[in-house]
Structure to design on (506 residues):
């Protein structure tokens, strides 16, 4: 079910990528309206990550998870009956919010159930990460088949049915691992209202939302447009105010002390730059296949399938080596893989063989994504105590989504400028080649941080101790209170931080 949780947003992405053209034609949508089908879902999903993470920790992770699964199913069904462009974009935004209700509580459940660094925790989070490539592939192929047999509405109806079944199954499958003593829901709700960072929520939702919307509108409306500039300034200002506010609120959405850990900051920065590169190159490669190679949506999904298969295999490898191989080395290899994958794409042309450049690039690109995501995610989950595991997941996912949007905005600006300069007479491959160089640059920046990382292995716990601790966590809710936080037991070997266990510090 952890894999399903992570697959929720990528399944939606895969489904919408496949049927976007059909939706636009059926509802007579403009290019700008079509772009908001996926942009609206991405915007809301990113903006509400922190809020949902804190709510899950305060109200109950399983409750929020089940509610999110139900909302995702219901919203998918409603989207299938959209009759005009306005409601289509609005409903996709609501669907993105529903997907945001699933990931943070799922991460919190995993983090609390496996609150001690261990090999089993490595495998659990690798299974979670595998949902990323699997969701996109299954979503694009399954919904593409449904759309081809019936129409685009059938793909959303199928999505609703699948998540309804999974949601019902989650009632029995998902463990009830919470961060509070058993208490009536009204009591938990009262405590949640007292502790919930309301102003922080308003600032982060508006800040991330407005800033992301500006990045989405910029390529089409022009970066010099008054409303785009105003939105960028307002969004950035709100995020700055949010950071200052988090210094004062007792239970912040973003605990600022975590950024004092140099390794944490460098890891997150490296992972974000890598994901910016990954998201951008994948988007433009899919567009290249559609516009230059003239593949239909389902054919594009099939050509991207090797990346999905490789993604699953790389996650298995990552789970097997996190506790054995120096994680700084894993991050370094992942960063180099990003650079190599995108350099290969710069040589790709409309006449090139698929197996020469695209295929190896897909394998290498997902290698970098899976390895860096697993290392960073494991470290981030250790940065916050057991009663804030959902919030930890929300922080990382929000930053990844925001970074991906920024990366796509930068590459889109480059693509648009090259297309305008060509005026329809230039090399059809040139705009794509230049956006791949943008991805190379982003991946290269990530490489610059790697030499300063100091992290050893993660998950070094003897099997007997590991099994006992995990079993206890699944059977008993956390009794952790304010002022108590689990901290990692660290061993310093040549300046590197090796996570080997945890203790409770009051």
């Amino acid at each position: 079910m952890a894999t399903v949780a992570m697959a929720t947003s990528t399944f939606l992405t895969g489904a919408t990528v496949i049927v976007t053209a059909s939706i636009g034609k059926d509802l007579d949508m403009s290019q700008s309206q079509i772009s908001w089908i996926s942009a609206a879902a991405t915007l809301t999903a990113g903006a509400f990550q922190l809020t949902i993470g804190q709510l899950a920790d305060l109200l109950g992770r399983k409750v929020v998870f089940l509610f999110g699964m139900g909302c995702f199913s219901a919203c998918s069904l409603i989207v299938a009956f959209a009759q005009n462009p306005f409601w289509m974009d609005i409903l996709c935004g609501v669907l993105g919010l529903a997907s945001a209700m699933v990931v943070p509580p799922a991460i919190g459940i995993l983090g609390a159930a496996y609150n001690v660094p261990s090999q089993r925790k490595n495998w659990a989070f690798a299974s979670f990460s595998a949902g990323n490539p699997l969701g996109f592939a299954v979503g694009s192929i399954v919904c593409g088949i449904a759309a081809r047999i019936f129409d685009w509405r059938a793909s959303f109806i199928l999505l609703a049915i699948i998540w309804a079944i999974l949601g019902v199954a989650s009632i029995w499958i998902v463990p009830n691992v919470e961060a509070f003593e058993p208490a009536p829901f009204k009591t938990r709700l009262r405590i949640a209202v007292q502790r919930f960072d309301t102003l922080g929520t308003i600032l982060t939702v508006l800040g991330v939302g407005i800033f992301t919307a500006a990045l989405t509108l910029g390529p089409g409306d022009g970066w010099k447009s008054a409303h785009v500039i105003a939105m960028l300034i307002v969004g950035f200002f709100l995020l700055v105010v949010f950071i200052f506010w988090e210094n004062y609120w007792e239970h912040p959405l973003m605990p600022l002390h975590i950024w004092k850990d140099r390794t944490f900051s460098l890891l997150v920065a490296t992972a974000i730059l890598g994901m910016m590169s990954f998201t951008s190159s994948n988007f433009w490669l899919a567009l290249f296949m559609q516009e230059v190679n003239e593949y239909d949506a389902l054919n594009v999904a099939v050509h991207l399938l090797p990346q999905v298969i490789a993604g699953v295999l790389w996650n298995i490898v990552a789970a097997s080596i996190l506790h054995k191989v120096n994680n700084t080395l894993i991050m370094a290899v992942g960063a180099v893989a990003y650079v190599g994958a995108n350099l290969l794409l710069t040589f790709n042309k409309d006449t090139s063989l698929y197996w020469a450049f695209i295929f190896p690039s897909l394998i290498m690109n997902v290698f970098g994504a899976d390895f860096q995501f697993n290392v960073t995610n494991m470290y981030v989950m250790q940065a916050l105590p057991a009663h804030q595991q959902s919030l930890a997941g929300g922080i990382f996912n929000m930053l990844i989504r925001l970074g991906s949007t920024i990366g796509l905005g930068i590459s889109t600006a480059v693509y648009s400028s090259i297309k305008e300069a060509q005026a329809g007479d230039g090399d059809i491959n040139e705009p794509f080649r230049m956006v791949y160089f943008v991805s190379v640059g982003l991946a290269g920046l990530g490489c610059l941080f790697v030499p300063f990382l100091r992290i050893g292995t993660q998950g070094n716990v003897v099997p007997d101790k590991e099994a006992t601790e995990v079993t206890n966590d699944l059977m008993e809710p956390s009794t952790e209170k304010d002022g108590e936080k689990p901290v990692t037991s660290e061993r310093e070997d040549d300046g590197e931080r090796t996570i080997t266990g945890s203790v409770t510090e009051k």
Remarks:
- The first helix runs from residue 2 to 26.
- Confidence is low (pLDDT under 50) at residues 462-494, 500-506.
- The first strand starts at residue 455 and ends at 458.
- Residues 2-196+251-458 form a domain with the Growth Hormone; Chain: A; fold (CATH 1.20.1250.20).
